[in-house]
Design goal:
This protein has 14 helices and 24 strands. With 466 residues, it is of the alpha/beta class. It has a 7-stranded mixed β-sheet with strand order 7-6-5-2-1-8-20. Helix 1 runs parallel beside helix 11 and helix 7 packs antiparallel against helix 8.
């Protein structure tokens, strides 16, 4: 039984935030019903995105709405606040939150009081001061970006098909991906696979007309799967005529021209940036201790070091890896650890409220799996290395078992089954990004949003173009 009323504030609705709130909702069911405990989740989106399925969503293998989990449905006993935490004063036990209402009205942010704080805001894209990147780059971290990128790729094929100008065709059919981690390699592999399939429906666009370029600053890609499988992945991609450039950086993408550090220049309308992530900026606006990389310094019990009533896990936390042989090692910022850390974190909050001893987080890294397109993949799990179809099948099986809720599992499985029976959909719904453009034009106004669609003019927004 909780000794006194406990207000638990969870900042973030990603892996850690959702799973922590879900487990607390179950373990504190009686306290929540009696009103001696309350759980508030502050998140910028009303859903949790299962990011390992973003490449398949971008390729059209899975409907985008099936890779997100609605928080209000799975957390009925929690208060969901859609907004952005901008600062935390843990000494005063308050968090500053800009909600949709305060932003709409131009009001000052709200101050939420709490007794127990869970900081799990996740990470944001780590960008570099590359000229033109802010104007022309496309990220790949959200479901909206995945949808936008799919629409954009198909639109580029439409542009190339509708012109005989070699410069326009070449730029439209050149796709540059920066970053050789999971996000970049999987997104490139799935989209190249989709575009090659779609080309059969274009009378004047062939797969060999397209240039797919992967730019990686280090000497290897997919370091999580090991050096051997990393080299195999490079060979597999190059066998598909994908230009993999190691030890190379993007130096500029001004004027829709990608300039690389090796001197190569590629006119292109597509630059996808997946070169790493960094901690959420709200961490710097707290009075909690951070490490050299800007993450919260944590204990093995997932408390914030040197404080009480503050907890953290996931990308935002530097959690000691008690299974590692080298001293000072921390757990990798991935979903495998985040989901397990959330379980321990929620249980430790419950134990703390009930005056019970805390447990330490301990999990030995099991390995990694990556998809390289339909029936292609690599996997390094528990010391075993798999390639091709077995690795692809393991990738799908593992992530199907990990996506939250039976509802989502059933829907994803149904879509995969139907995809095996019918042909791929290759329709671009670019107008989704600017749904009012058609009406504004009909009403005699000037469309507020850009697009590559001739009805709405050239696209200018960085999220929808490159």
């Amino acid at each position: 039984m909780v000794k006194e009323r406990a207000r638990i504030l969870v900042v973030g609705g990603g892996y850690v935030g959702m799973y922590t709130a879900l487990r607390l909702q179950r373990s504190l069911k009686r306290e929540l019903k009696e009103g001696t405990a309350e759980i508030t989740v502050v998140t910028p989106d009303p859903y949790m995105t299962y990011q390992p399925f973003l490449p398949e969503a971008a390729a059209g293998n899975i409907s985008p709405r099936h890779v997100v989990v609605p928080l209000r449905r799975v957390l009925p006993d929690c208060r969901i606040v859609i907004g952005e935490a901008t600062a935390v004063d843990h000494a005063a036990r308050t968090a500053t939150v800009a909600t949709l209402a305060t932003t709409e009205k131009g009001l000052p942010p709200e101050h939420l009081a709490y007794d127990e704080l869970v900081l799990a805001p996740g990470s944001i894209a780590r960008t570099l001061p590359v000229p033109g990147l802010a104007d022309h780059g496309i990220g790949f971290k959200t479901v909206e970006e995945a949808i936008g990128l799919r629409n954009h790729v198909v639109e580029q094929m439409d542009i190339a098909s509708s012109t005989r100008d070699p410069e326009i065709r070449d730029a439209a059919l050149t796709f540059v991906f920066v970053g050789g981690g999971f996000a970049g390699v999987e997104a490139l592999g799935e989209l190249e696979d989709m575009a090659r399939y779609a080309a059969r429906y274009y009378h004047n666009v062939r797969p060999e007309d397209m240039k797919w370029i992967l730019v990686e600053a280090s000497d290897r890609i997919l370091p999580e799967v090991g050096a051997d499988l990393g080299r195999y992945t490079v060979s597999e991609l190059r066998r598909r005529n994908i230009d993999v450039r190691l030890n190379t950086r993007l130096e500029s993408c001004l004027n829709r021209v990608a300039v690389l550090s090796d001197g190569a220049r590629f006119p292109t309308r597509t630059v996808v940036w997946t070169a790493g992530v960094k901690p959420h900026p709200v961490l710097a606006a707290t009075d909690l201790p951070l490490d050299a990389r800007g993450r919260l310094r944590c204990t093995p019990q997932l408390t914030v070091e040197g404080t009480t009533h503050a907890w953290a896990a996931g990308d935002a936390a530097a959690v000691p890896d008690v299974t590692a042989s080298e001293p000072g090692a921390t757990t990798a910022p991935n979903a495998q650890h985040a989901v397990r850390q959330a379980k321990v974190l929620a249980d430790n909050i419950t134990r703390s409220l009930r005056g019970e001893p805390l447990q330490s987080y301990s999990h030995k890294y099991a390995g990694s799996v990556a998809s390289l397109g339909f029936h292609k993949g690599v996997a390094h799990v528990y010391g075993r290395k798999l390639k091709g179809y077995p690795a692809w099948f393991m990738h799908r099986t593992y992530h199907l078992s990990r996506i939250p809720t039976f509802n989502r599992k059933a829907r994803v499985l149904a879509e995969w089954t139907l995809a095996g029976l019918f042909k791929r959909e290759i329709v671009s719904l670019g107008s989704l990004e600017h749904p009012r453009a058609e009406f504004e034009l009909a009403a005699g106004g000037k469309p507020s949003g850009g697009s590559d669609n001739p009805k709405t003019g050239p696209r200018d927004d960085p999220k929808g173009s490159s």
